[in-house]
Amino acid sequence: MSLRIHAVPAIRTAAAATSAPLSLGVQSSMGGNLLGQEETSRAKTGRIAFVLIDGLADIQIPALANLTPLEAANTPGMDAIAAAGLNGLLDPVEPGLACGSDTAHLSIFGYDPRLYYRGRGALESMGAGIDMAPGDIAFKCNFATLDPATKIVLKRRADRHFEDVGPLLCSALNGVSLPSFPHLIVKAKYATEHRCGIVVSGPGLSDEVSGTDPLKDNLPLQVSKPLKATAEAQYTAAVVNELSTALQEVLQDHAVNQQRIAQGSPPANVVLLRGCGSRPARYESLHGGSH
Predict the structure, then answer these.
(1) Cα(100)–Cα(194) distance, integer angstroms
(2) Which of 96, 100, 194, 289 lies at a C-alpha separation of 20 to 30 Å from 215?
(3) What PANTHER family does the annotation carry (predicted)?
């Protein structure tokens, strides 16, 4: 469980306080303000601490006297933050609509995901620390294990404990060349566990392409295809397929993988390219102000 505190420009209005679950999505029409008049005045000119604990919900555990792990845990820091803040239930987008972390985060920060969601790859890559410009495309990636002879993905996650070797592999992948597309720039950076972010920069790219992840173990590595009948999408699918091959070539003979094979561990010899996306509009362009 992780606790992330974001300092963001204060939003001037919020949903009205109520004993019922709150819906704070961009489609909400409720008025009012959760802050008092004095606090609102300060928030307009300052910053607020926004605490977002993603994935905290859990189920009751019999071994914990039917408490959830959160209920059973000793959490004095979180308790203090909750006591000093505003608490409630919310539907991130709209009531009854289940959504993932990416679309929920966008909506909470004032982006209607139906208008601004452009794939999770951009969020993962920017979160890893890769700068993105308009027109770039990005992927949320897994280090995985591939049978080179059959092109079957044996393990979609080569290893969850990649903190030591992940940065080494990403360093080797960063700047990999694409012979058919020498004008494109590839950037790679380690994220967490078995994941990394990859960004491709250059003209004519589209985020309307599929990835290479088969979504289950023991299935063939997928070929990227255009999701729209446009020249840009067709071009980008060809780029993604060459990128997939180029990454495999770098990883195949990397010292990290040679050592893993010698130790009997599955090699991380393929990168599964997932969730192609482009960066959303900047926060200031939607709400004004600065970082």
Answers:
(1) 20
(2) 96
(3) COFACTOR-INDEPENDENT PHOSPHOGLYCERATE MUTASE, METALLOENZYME DOMAIN-CONTAINING PROTEIN
CB distance 206 to 239 below 8 Å: no
Q: In DSSP terms, which residues pair with 142 in a beta bridge?
A: 195, 272
CA distance 121 to 215: 15
Q: How far apart are the first and last CA of the chain?
A: 27
Note the pTM of the prediction, 2 decimals.
Answer: 0.73
Neighbours of 191 (CB within 10 A): 19
Would you state the structure tokens that stand for residue 267, as one six-digit string? 């090699």
The answer to whether the beta carbons of residues 128 and 189 sit under 8 Å apart is yes
How many Å separate Cα 254 from the centre of its chain? Answer: 27
pLDDT along the chain (291 residues), means of 10: 36 33 33 42 63 78 93 91 81 84 84 84 91 95 96 95 92 97 97 95 97 97 97 98 98 95 96 94 72 50
Cα→Cα distances 194→91, 131, 191, 271, Å: 30, 21, 8, 10
Residue type, 51: V
Cα separations in angstroms, 203 against 27, 89, 134, 136, 181: 35, 43, 10, 8, 11
What is the C-alpha separation between 228 and 189, in angstroms, rounded? 29
CB 188 within 8 A of CB 142: no
Among the residues of the chain, which ranges form H helices? 37-45, 69-72, 76-84, 101-108, 113-116, 120-128, 166-173, 231-252, 255-262, 283-287
- Yes or no: say if 252 and 281 are a contact pair by the CB < 8 Å rule: no
